[in-house]
Write a structure and sequence with these properties.
single chain, 263 residues, mainly beta, Immunoglobulin-like, 5-stranded antiparallel β-sheet, 3-stranded antiparallel β-sheet, 6% helix, elongated
């Protein structure tokens, strides 16, 4: 207790002191929000913010549970909301650092999990523990229809993505339609992939000129020079072959056997 007033003496009475109760510390009111689980700045991360209205310049701790709310879920991390969040400060007219970012362990990146986050007024023995909204945030498994929409921008090999929303894939990737079967998912799932190199083809026509004998035969058999004949080595190619004419004198000359008779 404290007292205020004055003590004085007069001819008739003593003055009195008024008893005044000591001021009490403001009751902590914890505020905050779980924004998203995304790869906005690289690794898959749970983002949010929290602060104590009774001490808005001070960063406070937060607890993270997986598999349910406190009491049913498992406490997996206790971190401090001490990252810069100018948007929060401007919206709530406060100062200090009140953001938090918790990288999702690889253990939880391949399935569907529920996370719950609580703000604490102090640690290690908090007097106030407040669940942040949403009281449960779901991390979807890759291949889910809303995976890149909720947790993007997606890395290569993750989907489902929306081809008309390029921002759902990380820079340098594109959303490819109906390739989910390549990753063990439904064939209709669209997946973020690296662009395939463009392959160009060129067709060239090569002309070959063959050598020919001295006199080129014509198509008419009667106009061919003596000694020309045609053969067809294939069904589609006609080839001209030159044969030298025989000597008529040699053709009818008698053959001589043994020694010539003496003339």
């Amino acid at each position: 207790m404290t007292y205020q007033g004055s003590v004085f003496q007069s001819a008739t009475a003593w003055g009195t002191l008024t008893q005044v109760a000591a001021p009490t510390a403001p009751t902590p009111v914890l505020r905050g929000y779980v924004d998203v689980i995304s790869r906005l700045h690289g690794p898959l991360t749970l983002y949010g913010w929290a602060y104590n209205t009774a001490a808005s310049t001070t960063s406070i701790p937060v607890e993270i549970y997986v598999g349910g709310v406190r009491g049913t879920g498992t406490l997996v991390a206790t971190i401090t909301a001490n990252q810069s969040r100018p948007d929060v400060n401007q919206a709530h007219q406060i100062t200090g650092n009140h953001g938090f970012a918790w990288p999702i362990p690889t253990t939880y990146q391949s399935g569907t999990y529920q996370f719950s986050v609580y703000a604490l007024d102090q640690s290690p023995t908090p007097t106030v523990r407040t669940p942040l909204k949403p009281t449960s945030i779901t991390l979807l498994a890759p291949g889910h229809a809303d995976y890149c929409k909720n947790h993007g921008p997606c890395i290569a090999g993750h989907g489902d993505c929306d081809p008309v929303t390029p921002s759902q894939c990380q820079s340098g990737l594109q959303c490819v339609n109906n390739v989910g079967a390549n990753y063990g998912w439904n064939a209709a799932i669209d997946v973020c992939e690296a662009p395939q190199p463009v392959v160009t083809t060129r067709t060239e026509t090569i002309y070959i000129r063959a050598t020919s004998p001295p006199a080129r035969p014509t198509s008419s058999a009667s106009s061919r020079p003596q000694g020309w004949s045609t053969t067809k080595p294939t069904a589609t190619t006609t080839q001209a072959v030159y044969r030298a004419p025989r000597d008529p004198a040699r053709r009818h000359a008698p053959q001589r056997h043994g020694l010539e008779r003496a003339r």
